[in-house]
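Aim 2 progress update. The chain analyzed this quarter is reproduced below.
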Amino acid sequence: MYMIVKHAHLTIILLTFVFFLINLVLTMRNSDMVNNKLLKIGPHILYTLFVISFIYLIMNNPLELYPFTNSWASSKLGGFVLYVLSITFALKWAKTNLWRIVGLISAVFWLAMSARLAFAYHLKAKGAGEDANAYIDFAQSMLAAIC
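Predicted structure tokens:
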């Protein structure tokens, strides 16, 4: 069951990014489609499913990695929060297309950092050694510098 929820969690992350890109393009074009009910409600449903799957993965975690007690899990949670804030900035707070692109770059950055952090920890768990530690240290230091 854990692996099913883990893969669903990763699929939800992909879908949130796809919805973000669609909404961003429509917002930049000043399209009326941005008010489509699916495009307005869909991301909120996905974020809710993301949080539910996140809680499940934490509670049934075979490696016992918990936010606020493990720096890796805390960094992942921080990356998700900054990813969502970047999306909110790009879609709601930014008034010009230049600032929307800045929000896009920020969202892609935080998504990539979180993915890289997850991949590095996966390598470390598999015994890949120093390279994984370097990735983890870099990502945690980036998150610590921002927060």
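Helices lie at 2-28, 37-59, 71-93, 97-126, 130-146. The first helix runs from residue 2 to 28. These observations will guide the mutagenesis experiments scheduled for the next reporting period.
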